Amino acid sequence: MKKKVKLKGQLKSYLQWPLVLSVLLLIMNLCMYPISVKAGILMSVFLVVYVGIVVMLYVNGRSRIYSDLVSFAAQYGQIQRKLLKELAIPYALLEEDGKVIWANTAFFQVSGKSKKNLRKSISWFFPEFTKDILSAEEWEDSRMVRFSCEERDYRADVRRVYMDEVLDTGAFVETEEESFLIAVYLFDETEINRYIRMTREQRLVAGLVYLDNYEEALDTVEEVRRSLLVALVDRKINKYIGAFGGIVKKIEKDKYFIAVQEKDLPVMRESKFELLQDVKTVNIGNEMAVTISIGLGMSGKTFAENYDYARIAIDLALARGGDQVVLKEGENISYFGGKTQQVEKATRVKARVKAHALQEFIESRDKVMVMGHKLTDADSFGASIGIYRAAKVLGKRAYIVLNQVTSSVRPMRECFLDNPAYEPDMFLNNEQAIEMIDSNTVLVVVDTNRPSYTECSELLNRTPTIVVLDHHRQTNEQISNAVLSYIEPYASSACEMVAEILQYFDEGLKIKAVEADCLYAGIIIDTDNFMGKTGVRTFEAAAFLRRCGADVTRVRKMFRNGMAEYKARAEAVRHAEVYHGFAISVCPNENIESPTIVGAQAANELLNIIGVKASIVLTYYQKRTYISARSIDEVNVQVLMERMGGGGHMNVAGAQLDCGVEEASEIVKHTIDKMHEEGEL
């Protein structure tokens, strides 16, 4: 059945212009009859012939015009199809489920598949380009996807093409609501990425190398051989950095500036920065091995910013005890090494300088507020009492922030309650401290340098004068706005540091016996009765406190345990499991006032068992699992605890996990396994 095809639009108007002119000629012919009949007849004959010719051309030429239009459209479509097919950019059309329904030649060449594989999923052509990418709902009409296939990097521009926007619905097909195809363009970015990697690998990494114990090591060598020791250390450093094509510049007698390319860092990391161990092999009769600390800075916008990163990194390495590498990459900080016991400094110059600086800050403010860490222990409480006495000597009002009182702290606190020699508002809780603090207050943080561990972290934002006194190694999280920071990882306890400061604080300073007891108790607890992490200065601090009236018998009575605590500690030891040399146990928490303290005591007890390299005791308390880790000398438990978000010292460390003890135990074992594989334990 024939179906009439009608033209429309401007083409139809263009073809009908001769007919319109015929009407005009007819009007002209009628106007000529009044003038001349002969002329009108002649015009009529001309008009009839003209109309006949126009009608014949219009009728006969219309089909030819249709044919030419169809031919042109077909040729135009073929040209478009040919150009799209031979386009250098791989292009494909997919159904909603990811099946390829059409693709150009470049797409098949890149994928290495033949044209016979149409109707197969896009993931069959490129396995990394999964269906999940196409089905993700977070992208609307277009998105960009990057993936790699056969060592080539691709960027895929994916776009949804809705059928109702490109088809005249009802002409040939009927489209469903929101029906669409997916157009995919592939761009090979392999070369671009290669140049980007080359540029990144050639970026400068600034570094600082410090000798940790330069003076101490030289003192153990004959004077005539000291220059040889320094020369050998210089050679080790220059040889190591020179092997990577880097540069070394000695800026002081015990400090070096180094610069290497970023591409060399993965090799250094894989070898665990072997320079740390290589320098220790230098031995020309020196009794003390030389150790170094390295601070590296990278990923800064400028070389100067990388150098600033390196300075921050080396300060952090030294604050953590030295003998390690700290890499600061933008906001990220990584640690390597740090397995050697910190060397105690023989000089007290630093303690004297810090004492005078603290005295100046206290004298310039109206009041002093002291706070330690959450779940205050004997060391934190004793150090707070020491700072309290220093403030009172200078005639300042002093307060101690204390919330929850544990069983180890209660006997000491009771010595100050209802004591006429001390103010009744000596101890404040968080709410009282927040109300009391102002910009004219010195806030002294003791026994912690992490804001989240403090009794009331909100206080840190309410005064510009913050002082930090701590003996724990620093981590990524630290109190950054402190005006005075005295962090010595070699110190046995915060009480030892405060006792040293008090000796240089004021000539008229006198510590009362009860205050000396608290400071002495802090040292006793953190050193496990002087059995761990003690040095010459530890005993000197203890001797100073004894001269001030500290009584060993009174301190011992303070820390006697109840029967329930003693049984819980025995149960923890009894059910300990030895895992790769680690004694792992869970401390009971039923009917115990301070289970975390009992857990720490159990960890100390487990070290007395033959074959135990380190002990880890888990305690569930207040919906969190507290981990106490202890070792003697074979294992650095501080590195282990840092992996779980904690910290501490080589021999005494801990962490807190927001989970149950069973899950925490699995995390501990997994971390031990992983560190064994990496050679970190």
Summed up, what is this model?
The chain is of the alpha/beta class. It has a 6-stranded mixed beta sheet with strand order 7-8-6-9-10-11. A 6-stranded parallel beta sheet has the order 14-13-12-15-16-17. A 6-stranded mixed beta sheet has the order 18-19-20-21-23-22, sandwiched between helices.
Instruction: Please give the order of strands in the largest beta sheet.
Output: 7-8-6-9-10-11
Largest sheet: 6 strands, mixed
Integer-rounded radius of gyration:
42 Å
Question: Gap between N and C termini, in Å?
Answer: 90 Å
Compute the number of helices: 25
Strand content: 15-25%
**What share of residues is helical?**
40-55%
Spans of at least 5 consecutive residues with low confidence: 169-175
Query: What class would the helix/strand composition place it in?
Result: alpha/beta
What number is the mean pLDDT? Answer: 82
Q: How many β-strand stretches?
A: 23
Q: Indicate the overall shape.
A: elongated
Provide an overview of this structure.
43% of the residues lie in helices and 20% in strands. A six-stranded mixed sheet has the order 7-8-6-9-10-11. A six-stranded parallel sheet has the order 14-13-12-15-16-17. A six-stranded mixed sheet has the order 18-19-20-21-23-22, sandwiched between helices. By secondary structure, the chain is α/β, with parallel strands linked by helices. The N and C termini lie far apart (90 Å).
